[in-house]
Amino acid sequence: MDSKSTIDPTATTVAQQLGNLPVMTAEVQAAIERLNRKGFIPLHQVQIAHDWLEGKRQSRQSGRVVGESRTGKTMACDAYRLRNKPQQVAGKPPTVPVIYIQIPQECGAKELFGVILGHLKYQVTKGTIAEMRDRTLRVMKGCQVEMLIIDEADRFKPKTFAEVRDIFDNLQISVILVGTDRLDAVIKRDEQVYNRFRACYRFGKLSGEDFERTVKIWEQQVLRLPTPSNLTGKTIIKTLGEATGGYIGLMDMILREAAIRSLKKGLAKIDLQTLKEVAEEYK
Ligand SMILES: Nc1ncnc2c1ncn2[C@@H]1O[C@H](COP(=O)(O)OP(=O)(O)O)[C@@H](O)[C@H]1O
Ligand SMILES: [Mg+2]
Asked: Is residue 93 over pLDDT 60?
């Protein structure tokens, strides 16, 4: 039998012809590692979203958070959960004020209960839907949950929305559905569901001054290259605006990649040429 570890002779030849990959200095390597690590930036729009969520939690009202993909919904909602840390007192169930979950594709009632119990670190036991519903409600009550944030709520099977509505009615907690306009369309089909999730917070694309301000924050707090790239200069900001369409997710991706590529070229900052190269790939 062929051993998988045997090096393919053509690969060796190719490697010899091309030579070794250029060696990077330790500094550049460290900078690249840093640029590959994702971090959370407490942006102004995140603060506003958190204030909105805080209001909903305090008044135990439900609603939805809607926006296109890559506008920062998940990062903002997960950070809100982190600001509402669980508390544990020995011998008692933990207090979990905010649950944040992401649900699987085609999510039905059982899967929903499973994800909630898992998040609260309770064992998911098998049983009928009624048994699982009972257990989930009991556990949520025990943990004194005040808000349930359900991300990717577009993935619910249409009839599971009734189940979510019942959680809200039963526990009198705030339930927040997070998703795209697809979610909006489904919710609006059922008057009863729509009425409970009427309040809506929207995440949008960045434009104008907001976009410029965010790029500046990225340059100073995320990229932190040896020399400033002056990313808000006229030509660069225009290129960035066109390439990202104002989506924060794309801006983050393109800027990180451009920074890494510039460093590998031996530059101390992002130059327009490199930015254009990267932008071209994301078209
Ligand atoms: N507050 C933030 N701090 C840092 N990066 C962010 C922030 N918000 C969004 N991003 C970047 O944008 C990407 C997309 O954000 P995400 O929250 O997943 O969007 P959505 O859930 O709307 O699709 C993230 O992976 C991250 O790179
Ligand atoms: Mg998301």
From this structure: yes
Structural domain for 138, as ranges = 44-202
Same domain, residue pair 165 and 248: no
Question: Hey, whose CA ends up nearest to atom 16 of ligand 1?
Answer: 72
Give the C-alpha distances (Å, rounded to integers) separating 272 from 24, 210, 231, 255: 22, 21, 9, 12
The DSSP-derived string for 217-280 is HIIIIII--SS---TTSHHHHHHHHHHHTT-HHHHHHHHHHHHHHHHHTT-SS--HHHHHHHHH
Residue 282 lies in a domain: yes
Task: Please check whether residues 63 and 174 belong to one and the same domain.
Answer: yes
* pTM confidence score: 0.90
Do residues 57 and 169 both lie within one domain?
Answer: yes
Same domain, 63 and 97: yes
Mean pLDDT of 45-71: 97
144 and 111 in one domain? yes
pLDDT at residue 272 greater than cutoff 50: yes
Residue 204 has pLDDT above 80, yes or no: yes
Residues 64 and 153 in one domain: yes
**Tens-place pLDDT, residues 239-266:** 999 999 999 999 999 999 999 999 999 9
* Atom in ligand 1 nearest the alpha carbon of residue 247: 12
- Is residue 82 lining ligand 1, measured as CB closer than 6 Å? no
Q: Which of 48, 64, 75 to mutate to test the pocket of ligand 1 (most atoms within 8 A of CB)?
A: 75
